[in-house]
């Protein structure tokens, strides 16, 4: 729906330079400030599928872009508890690529500033990943 990655059932498919540029452009628009469409970050929001696809991609460039997007979304939308809960959930239930990307983003955001998070949830996650 939002990315060429949706068309491929094989996540090992290498995307073209133009597809990567399109993903970067979509990411830049999404991360230029707080999300203006709260429906996208609602519990069943459409952005989560897009983020899942980017983070689960085997192409390292796309995966790194996904990590950066999640980090920026968390930084720019601290009031969106659904986004934080999604990232925490993916650390437990996602594939290795997906879980590591979300964990890196959470660790970066929570380590850089006073992010409004539940300390018990974060401690459980750290213990789970240790």
TrEMBL record:
Which InterPro entries does this UniProt record tie to the protein? Furry/Tao3/Mor2
What biological process terms from GO does the record include? cell morphogenesis
Q: Which domain of life is it from?
A: Eukaryota
Q: What is this protein called?
A: RCG42810
Query: What organism is listed for this UniProt entry?
Result: Rattus norvegicus (Rat)
């Amino acid at each position: 729906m939002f990315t060429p990655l949706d068309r491929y059932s094989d996540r090992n498919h290498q995307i073209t330079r133009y597809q990567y540029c399109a993903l970067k452009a979509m990411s830049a628009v999404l991360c230029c400030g707080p999300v203006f469409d709260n429906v996208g970050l609602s519990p069943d929001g459409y952005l989560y599928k897009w983020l899942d696809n980017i983070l689960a991609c085997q192409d390292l460039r796309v995966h790194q872009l996904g990590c950066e997007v999640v980090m920026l979304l968390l930084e720019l939308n601290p009031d969106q508890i659904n986004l934080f809960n999604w990232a925490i959930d993916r650390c437990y239930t996602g594939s290795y690529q997906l879980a590591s990307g979300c964990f890196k983003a959470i660790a970066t955001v929570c380590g850089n500033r006073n992010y409004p998070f539940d300390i018990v949830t974060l401690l459980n996650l750290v213990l789970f990943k240790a």
